[in-house]
């Protein structure tokens, strides 16, 4: 029986090894402290957090996420540790709520390694607090118990750590938030939920949304935190949601509220076998809900068909919930992403368990002098290794089965994707026409994991963009980048920016998307030729410091005017010359041509622009930008980092896998880009723009 605890109640823990599963309405920071008999934390080395995620007997997530799984081995804790406090905190990044009272109540569960819940606790009653001690695991003699605490701190992490006696509380709190910021810069955001009033409606600014994840919750950086999967990952379970990234990555706006707790990964029972399940809200093939009266009836998805008795259902494109085929395909892609994340996490967790069990059995053999040498010891060691190999083989078989099903689904889904979701080689682009309405999302690359490199999942970001893009032109990070010539890498980075700009221009109706380019030294003129010669740009790329200043001043004025009109409720009073289309500013060769004022304006556009339709795409090397010191770090972290070459820098918001990002490069001949851009230019001229 599961014990549903209330604040202050305790419950015995039946075993030393357990998991602590956390589900929140949006990304939160999870950590733990190791205290003595009085609960005092003696130093920073006794705190597990995203910047230092492993301690003896304890492992936490490396990034902020809506769902966490903390691995605890009470038997491996230092002998002087008597209390383990599980901590939750809100990220201090821009776009996140500043208090727990503004988000859904976090849910915490202590489970066995088989996924069975031992005790649960819902942290209700929080208001101004931005950090909270959720649970306390404490020693009573030779046994351990769990206590529901729920003690919140309005002063955040620093106040909470200081309350536990840590002298360096403020410094450590800053270190933790810095590590979280790096992680948010690189994680893929979960997709926003479907809303009855339609997906194409303009959304409110991030600050006005409740329960939304930060910009791509992918905020991703691979885009920022160091994405590595926790040693003890979640078991894939029937009825889990799925994700595709975003850069919802994303990234998960940058993201959106995860499903309700009934669909969260910790709720369903642990997986005991069988293929990937399709019952979670975004993938179940149920009849669509009745649309609003003005909307036409939604067409139900085609039912799945079993090939043979005992075989999994045959995949069907659009076999997910949604109002339209586009939304069903979008949810299905996210479903594939999330299913792959969780089945890979289950495999890694099983391998870790097998290795841990092998170590324990070998330690047992070595601790007994009678079996340390001779045939008895050899047999015991061989038996232990055979058990390990059998467990790993069994886990691999389950992974291969799930991957085979997802590969089959991908082969059906890819050809059915609309242009904005599709690769360049999809026939949808060969017959491209300027669309009449904005699509739900845009594909900006593919993602895959090392366990199954053959399975590529589309990385989709929602439209309109809610965070900018950073095309990394630096030679740091991936081996592919470090092996390339600097000039070649910079050229490839600009080519990548042109590809993304083309897809954005091609995704919007005529006249609803405008691209500006800043190229102070004119170093990217050859790569920018498709945008310039096709006539898709309103004006030529800005050159020199004067050109930089003019473009930034124009876009800053637009942001100011639209914000004032929105606040005054007078959007019809905007000047007639103001371009109300979505704006994209491509900045190449930063920081060349930028003075302090221009840098300040750039930061302003990155922070305030997305909410009023002004977006930023930086083509830059972070090391070059370091000339301005830490002033640009928030800018770098606020953008979704993409690379012109494959790089394992993105992390999912569930288990923190390091996903390899594959950029979408233009077709070799380049004719397809010209076709799209020329049609966009013709449509713009027809509107007199």
Beta-strand percentage range: 15-25%
Helix content: 25-40%
Using only C-alpha atoms, the radius of gyration works out to 26 Å
The largest pleated sheet is described as: 12 strands, mixed
- Quote the average pLDDT: 79
- The coarse overall form would be globular
Class derived from helix and strand content:
alpha+beta
Low-confidence stretches: 193-282, 284-307
* Number of helical regions: 13
Could you give the distance between the termini? 68 Å
SS elements, strand count: 23
Question: How many structural domains are formed by the residues?
Answer: 3
Description:
The chain is an alpha+beta fold. The protein has three domains: 182 residues, Sandwich (Lipoxygenase-1); 211 residues, no CATH class; 177 residues, Rossmann fold (3-Layer(aba) Sandwich), CATH 3.40.50. About 17% of the residues have low confidence. It is globular. Strands 1, 2, 3, 4, 5, 6, 7, 8, 9, 10, 11 and 12 form a twelve-stranded mixed β-sheet that branches. It has a five-stranded parallel β-sheet with strand order 18-19-20-17-21, sandwiched between helices. Helices cover 30% and strands 20% of the residues. The protein is built from 13 helices and 23 strands. Helix 1 crosses helix 2. Strand 22 and strand 23 form a beta hairpin.
List the SSEs and their pairings.
Blueprint: E1 3-5, E2 10-12, E3 17-35, E4 47-48, E5 54-55, E6 58-59, E7 65-73, E8 83-89, E9 107-111, E10 117-122, E11 131-140, E12 143-153, H1 156-163, H2 169-184, E13 305-306, E14 313-314, H3 325-367, H4 374-413, H5 427-430, E15 441-448, E16 457-462, E17 469-472, H6 479-482, H7 486-507, E18 513-518, H8 529-533, H9 544-568, E19 582-590, H10 596-608, E20 614-620, H11 622-625, H12 633-638, E21 640-642, E22 647-651, E23 658-663, H13 671-686
Parallel strand pairs: 1-10, 17-20, 17-21, 18-19, 19-20
Antiparallel strand pairs: 2-12, 3-4, 3-7, 3-8, 3-9, 5-6, 6-7, 8-11, 9-10, 11-12, 13-14, 15-16, 15-23, 22-23
């Amino acid at each position: 029986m599961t014990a549903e605890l209330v604040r202050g109640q305790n419950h015995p823990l039946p075993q030393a090894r357990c998991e602590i599963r956390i589900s929140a309405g949006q990304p939160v920071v999870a950590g733990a402290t190791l205290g003595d008999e009085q609960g005092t934390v003696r130093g920073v080395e006794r705190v597990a957090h995203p910047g230092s995620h492993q301690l003896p007997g304890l492992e936490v997530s490396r990034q902020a996420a809506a769902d966490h799984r903390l691995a605890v081995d009470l038997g491996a804790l230092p002998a002087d540790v008597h209390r383990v406090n599980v901590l939750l905190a809100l990220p201090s990044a821009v776009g996140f709520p500043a208090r727990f009272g503004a988000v859904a109540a976090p849910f915490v569960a202590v489970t066995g390694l088989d996924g069975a819940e031992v005790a649960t606790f819902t942290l209700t009653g929080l208001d101004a607090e931005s950090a909270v001690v959720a649970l306390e695991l404490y020693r009573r003699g030779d046994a351990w118990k769990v206590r529901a605490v729920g003690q919140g701190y309005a002063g955040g992490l620093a106040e909470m750590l200081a309350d536990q006696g840590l002298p360096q509380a403020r410094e450590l709190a800053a270190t933790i938030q810095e590590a979280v910021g790096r992680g948010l810069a690189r994680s893929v955001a979960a997709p926003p939920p479907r809303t009855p009033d339609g997906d194409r409606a303009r959304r409110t600014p991030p600050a006005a949304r409740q329960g939304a994840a930060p910009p791509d919750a992918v905020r991703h950086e691979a885009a920022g935190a160091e994405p590595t999967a926790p040693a003890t990952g979640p078991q894939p379970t029937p009825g889990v949601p799925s994700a595709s990234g975003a850069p919802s990555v994303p990234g998960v706006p940058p993201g959106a509220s995860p499903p309700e707790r009934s669909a969260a990964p910790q709720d369903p029972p642990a997986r005991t076998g069988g293929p990937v399940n399709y019952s979670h809200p975004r993938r179940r093939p149920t009849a669509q809900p009745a649309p609003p009266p003005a909307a036409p009836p939604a067409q139900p998805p085609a039912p799945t068909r079993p090939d043979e008795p005992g075989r999994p259902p045959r995949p069907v494109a659009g076999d997910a919930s949604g109002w339209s085929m586009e939304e069903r395909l979008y949810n299905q892609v996210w479903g594939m992403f999330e299913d792959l994340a969780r089945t890979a996490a289950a495999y890694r967790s099983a391998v870790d368990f097998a290795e841990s069990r092998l170590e324990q059995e070998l330690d047992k053999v070595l601790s007994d002098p009678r079996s340390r040498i001779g045939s008895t010891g050899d047999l015991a060691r061989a038996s232990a290794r055979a058990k390990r190999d059998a467990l790993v083989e069994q886990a691999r078989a389950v992974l291969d089965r799930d991957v085979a099903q997802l590969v089959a689904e991908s082969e059906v889904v890819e050809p059915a994707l609309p242009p904005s979701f599709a690769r360049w080689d999809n026939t949808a682009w060969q017959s491209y026409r300027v669309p009449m309405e904005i699509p739900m999302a845009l594909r900006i690359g593919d993602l895959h994991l090392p366990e199954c490199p053959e399975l590529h999942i589309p990385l989709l970001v929602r439209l309109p963009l809610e965070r900018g893009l950073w095309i990394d032109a630096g030679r740091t990070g991936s081996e592919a980048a470090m092996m390339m010539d600097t000039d070649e890498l910079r050229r490839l980075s600009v080519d990548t920016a042109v590809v993304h700009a083309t897809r954005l221009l091609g995704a919007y109706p005529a006249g609803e998307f405008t691209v500006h380019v800043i190229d102070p030294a004119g170093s990217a003129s050859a790569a920018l030729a498709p945008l310039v010669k096709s006539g898709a740009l309103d004006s030529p790329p800005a050159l020199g410091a004067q050109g930089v200043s003019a473009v930034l001043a124009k876009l800053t004025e637009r942001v100011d005017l639209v914000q004032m009109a929105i606040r005054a409720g007078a959007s019809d009073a905007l000047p007639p010359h103001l371009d109300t289309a979505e704006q994209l500013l491509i900045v190449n060769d930063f920081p060349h041509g930028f003075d302090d004022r221009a840098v300040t304006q750039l930061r302003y556009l990155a922070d305030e622009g997305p909410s009023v339709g002004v977006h930023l795409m930086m083509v830059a090397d972070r090391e070059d930008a370091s000339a301005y010191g830490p002033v640009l770090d928030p800018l770098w972290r606020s953008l979704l980092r993409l690379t012109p070459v494959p790089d394992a820098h993105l992390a999912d918001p569930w288990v923190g896998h390091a996903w390899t990002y594959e950029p979408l490069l233009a077709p070799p001949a380049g004719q397809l880009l010209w076709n799209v851009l020329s049609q966009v230019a013709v449509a713009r001229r027809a509107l007199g723009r």
